[in-house]
Amino acid sequence: MTAASAGAIPAAEPDASRAAAGALARPSVWVRAYLAVSALVLLLMMALGVLLRLAQAGSVALSADWFYRVLTLHGVGMVGISGLAGVAVMWHFLGRHVALTQGVFVANLALFLLGVVLLFAPVLFAGYAGAWTFLYPLPQRSGGAWSTGAAALHLAGLLVVGVGFLLVHLETARAILARYGSLSRALGWPLLFGGSAPAPPAAVVASTMVLIVNTLGLAAGAVILVMSIVGALVPGFTFDALLAKNLIFFFGHVFINASIYMAVIAVYEILPVYAGRPWKVSRVFLAAWSAAVVMVATVYPHHLLMDFAMPKWALVMGQVVSYASGVPVLLVTAYGALRLVQRSGLRWDAASRLLLLGVFGWSAGMIPAVIDGTIAVNRVMHNTQWVPGHFHFYLLLGLVPMILGFMAFTSAGGRHADSGVGRGAFWGFVAGGLGVILSFLAAGARGVPRRFAAHLESWQLFDSVGAVAGALVVACVGVLVAGFLASLRAADGDA
Amino acid sequence: MQQLALWLTLIGVAALAAIFAAVARGASQRGVPERAPAGGERLRGWLFAAAGAAFVPITALSLGALPYGAPPEDAVIVEAVGHQWYWELSRTTVPAHGPVVFRVRSADVNHGFAVYDPDMRVVGQTQAMPGYENQLVLRFERPGSYRILCLEYCGSVHHGMQAALEVVEESR
């Protein structure tokens, strides 16, 4: 949606509110650069996802070797770009409340781009296909498919990307501490525990939660990455596979969740503009975000429920915390968003539709995720296509529309912007997204394994449905993103 | 179990979608512009209470049948070792109706030891991990040809890492 196609603002809207919305919708050139990179990589990775489904459907000839290489690119690319886009949202809104150093933001983008080269080159030119989970000791024991040097280079790329994100969180920590004095104040604890202190803005609360958990996650990731790189380069250097698995899933779980928690800041900041009501930072809100710090950091054993060698208490904790973690999402963010927009005179356009869809997708995705986090269910569903079914729910229809909503809002300059093409692309995206997700969930219930290069004929109907739905998603996201990219050109022209 | 999971998901998602659709339909109408309609906090309180009340019985019920217990002493033992990219099994025929314990290990990388019934539905699984032994206890009530698939990505022939397991009526 371009600024040129923006519709008129209702005459009743106060000038001050309009000005505030305009300021909110004017990101810096570096935020726009982040979003442009995110848009392009997102589209490319989505296209690779469709290619994988076409290959499983038997509609495209893709060797097993290349299937797993594309799978590795799709996974690592999607996780990385989710984080990058999430950082763009967080930086933009947090920067309105604390003084951030832009150099760190630029350095993260530079490290990300360097990391992408290091990540992709071994896959494209040296056959590396260790999946984004780089589960030890697969990177260094490929059965002859790739060299240990290729594995080390790819893992070094992940390390470089991780260092960039760590710098961002250290910078947000510095800026938040400079303004609020302590992380507990930034989480609103003085108000939460009975005081009368003013509540910090939602963007500050969310950014503080994210910096705590993601710093821990990235540190764990750095440890296992360095261990794996040394393991790849030094023959005979081995370590405990279960410890490695714990570190990897702690890092991976925390990182992708932190990406969603950064992206949801767009909902807290933009939806109120459309609803004409503030998002109230209540004690319930603060309690939920503080609880999320603990839950995001402790729930990761639900990825290890089929590792019977794990301590039993840790696995039970994984299930219990998994259940509990759905409550803040549903009863704080989803409920809060619905209450915010209910009979508010909301202005519907691409941004408001996408942001509310993002809240729905995030909440709805919790349902199959929590079910999968039940040990008795996980026993027959783990590593089937049920898993991509639930994570595509809260990423494809949760995080992605939050990012696209932010793009739509900024590309329209905060003005009401709607068009028939935009509406069509939105509903096509919803239909395609649901098709992708339901094809995975139905296949998972049928026992179809995830990450299989070759499928039985009886499984290929799910794959075909997923491929068609995925192609629809790519086309519709392409339309939505084109409006954003066109607005960048217009902004350059204005400058 | 799988069908129950699917139906619970579909019903839950449909209910949530209906709520979002209902609120979205009325969102463009103007109620009390400056704040959300009254009564919401009380309703949220009730929803928190309901979630808390449901949490205890659901958790207790679902934790009643964990797959982590010690195997029965009279179980038939199958040694299973995962290699890139094949399964090495100490026996490929097991009796129906009695307990069977699979002692699952790996000779190289992580694998997923998943047993599929003749209809290609998962009946149980555990991870095969270097340096560890995981014991999977199953009781096959239905004789027939079962398959073992690797459910943990393990490299370029991961999808081909399969084995056959016959479940027969004969005595052990």
Report on this structure:
- The complex is a heterodimer of chains A (495) and B (172).
- Chain A has 17 helices and no strands.
- With 495 residues, chain A is mainly alpha-helical.
- In chain A, helix 4 (102-126) packs antiparallel against helix 5 and helix 8 (202-233) runs antiparallel to helix 9 (241-263).
- The longest helix of chain A has 35 residues, at 460-494.
- Chain A is globular, with a radius of gyration of 22 Å.
- Chain B is an alpha+beta fold and 172 residues long.
- Chain B has two helices and nine strands; from the N terminus they run H-H-E-E-E-E-E-E-E-E-E.
- Chain B has helices at residues 2-27, 40-62, and strands at residues 76-83, 86-89, 93-95, 99-106, 111-116, 122-128, 134-139, 144-150, 162-168.
- Chain B has a five-stranded mixed β-sheet with strand order 3-9-8-5-6, with no helix packed on it. A four-stranded mixed β-sheet of chain B has the order 2-1-4-7, with no helix packed on it.
- In chain B, strand 1 (76-83) and strand 2 (86-89) form a beta hairpin.
- Chains A and B meet through helix 3, helix 9, helix 12, helix 13 and helix 14 of A and helix 1, helix 2, strand 5, strand 6 and strand 7 of B.
Q: How many angstroms does the end-to-end distance of chain B come to?
A: 29 Å
Count of alpha and pi helical runs of chain A: 17
Strand content of chain A: under 5%
Overall pLDDT of chain A, averaged? Answer: 91
Radius of gyration of chain A: 22 Å
Question: What is the helix fraction of residues of chain A, given as a range?
Answer: over 70%
Question: What is the gist of this entry?
Answer:
Chain A is mostly helical. Chain A contains 17 helices and no strands.
Summarize the topology.
The complex is a heterodimer of chains A (495) and B (172).
Chain A: H1 15-24, H2 29-57, H3 64-94, H4 102-126, H5 148-180, H6 183-186, H7 189-192, H8 202-233, H9 241-263, H10 265-275, H11 283-298, H12 312-341, H13 350-372, H14 375-381, H15 386-411, H16 420-445, H17 460-494
Helix pairs in contact in A: 2-3, 2-17, 3-4, 3-5, 3-9, 3-15, 4-5, 5-8, 8-9, 8-11, 10-13, 11-12, 12-13, 13-15, 13-16, 15-16, 15-17, 16-17
Chain B: H1 2-27, H2 40-62, E1 76-83, E2 86-89, E3 93-95, E4 99-106, E5 111-116, E6 122-128, E7 134-139, E8 144-150, E9 162-168
Parallel strand pairs in B: 1-4, 3-9
Antiparallel strand pairs in B: 1-2, 4-7, 5-6, 5-8, 8-9
